[in-house]
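Working notes for the structural subgroup meeting. M.R. asked for a predicted model of this chain before we commit to crystallization trials. I am recording the input and output together here so anyone reviewing the notebook later can reproduce the run.

Input as submitted:
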Amino acid sequence: MVLDRLRAIKPLNMVMLNPSQARAGHLYFLTGSFNCVDRLESRKQLISEFLFTNGEDMARPVVKKQDIEDAAIRLFATKGLAQTTVKDIASGAGVTGGALYRHYAGKNAMAWQLFCREIEKFSVELGARMFEPGAGLAARVEASVRFIFDYYAKYPVQFAFILLTQHGFPEERILDVELNPNDMVQRFVAEAVDAGDVPVQNTTLASGLVLGLVLHVMVMHRYERIEIDGAVVDDVVGAVKRVLLID
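Returned structure, recorded in token form:
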């Protein structure tokens, strides 16, 4: 063990915690001086090695959790929730299957927690544009649509994860209406109708048409049926305005 090798290089004074204390995250302290440069360099090397082996519990659990989450999102985005197994996630993260259960109750619980996290990040930014105080309706529509395409371009894996897993959870898993993009768009249309900015219309149908116009373009892009460029985004912005009957 690295800890034993550290003890073998005897300094003048050394206060060392036992291995279980060290692995629990405690530090040990060296005092005094060393007789030669070689011994000092050896100790520095071993200390470094210790922190990345025996001391991994101080840092690696956080890294491992992030590795697991990143692997899960990639797999959910490509294979879907139902087709992804715990074994797939563990293999993708380079950990054992038991590592996942140290952080989550299971695959579905992890997927739901990650979905809520990613949808919140997206929805908060979308809402800031969709309901920007003082901005005109047409400007808010354009800013919202362009933001969705920009987000997709910047975070394609996370966006695909949101898009592909949104219907894979049990019915009792319900998003907050303030963060659910479907509810947000429907509320946006309803407020525009109430304000007289657009003609009276079926807000549920209108919101569905708007989301379909935007999201299906991204689905086609994932299947390499279309390239998304500025002209395509301009066309989608115009189409959304026409669906909502915005002059």
